[in-house]
User: Fold this.
Amino acid sequence: MNAFWCETAIIAANNGSGVPEAASGVRLETHEGLISSVTTGTQPQPGDKKLDGIVFPAAANAHSHAFHRVLRGRTHEGRGDFWVWREQMYTSASELTPEKYQKLATAVFTEMVVAGFSSVAEFHYVHHQPGGEPYPEPHAMELALARAAMSAGIRLTLLDTLYLAGGMGTPLSSEQARFGDADVHAWLRRLASLRAAIAGSFPPDRVSIGAALHSVRAVPEEDLKVVAAKLPGDIPLHIHLSEQPAENEACLEAYGTTPAGLLERHGLLTSRLSAVHSTHLTQEDITALGQAGITVVMCPSTEADLADGIGPARELSDAGATIALGTDQHAVIDPWIEMRTLEHGERLGSGQRGRFSPQELLRAATDGAARSMATPVAQWALEEGGVCDLMVIDPASTRTAGSRPMQMAFSATASDVTEVIIAGELLASHGVHTRLGRPGSLLSAALKELS
Assistant:
């Protein structure tokens, strides 16, 4: 058994509401990576690991494309839009090999850990060699990501992605060939094989498999029918949904309905679905997504960087959807910035403050995001039975000094994260990963191998 003594910690209120509140002198006893007891108003005991500052649950990252980290700070010359940016993304994808990807992903996952993330859902579609030929080693790219996560110590849900078309009625382009499979049945067979390979090689609480449909642009309607009928029911399903108006227009022309309507037509709007972005929705879409109880993954820093627009997060939440947060293309990797950028977008769009409370923002960054993963782990507040995944915030930094603990979403950044614990193990301290060192050094070395 390990024990942590927290100067201040965000714990579940004992009034039965589960709403998080700040408490002083909190002692957390742990067993096998889980919190076995929570005691407040205590002093540290001999052997306790003291955590000075404010101890929050670690964040969960509900949407990541690890290789997009290559593009940070390299795509800002001249004007353009999402579609111009996408061509630069394809260039970066073309350079990846299993060895380069493992090195890059290790660095990116290390950056996440140091920033306060303990789990990530990796939306993965770079399956094969350029040109589309499978690698001699089965699942070479997928295993590279799994090994990277294990090295960094982050919990990984690897979302193996179905990507069959370059657009509605359009075959895959040469740049997209390595993303695809022969057909939906080949993808289902490869997914089953990947699940077996991962289960035989990695601990299930550290690496697990989910599924993703890249988008309705990339998966024709007849293949959606097969997915609905044959995808195993015990894994999560993700999709990029209505990120761009052009996607909606093409879907209406091809199928006579919106992307959300197309998913509903085939029974794919269920509580296991996570819809990423959901930026350009009709009122009917919002109602359908809410009634289905899906998770909507907002990626505010990416949506701003790509000029996607401001999605209807408050309306979706009010309709019944769970809001989650992800870092997507990693314009920044910072759970605190994603939290307040979500709220700032709402304020800019509505002219009102307080669209999401600080507690709601924390929930979107923790168990809201974890809900979309194969092994949900993050919790809204620290409590008995939860995982011992913690991040500690310095309450006296230049940014946070004077902030109330539950309002850190409006002042803190990843630079204020002093320590990160995953499954009871200290993995980051003051910006340095305890196993791998400084993320900047790892990223610099990895990026030198990619243009």
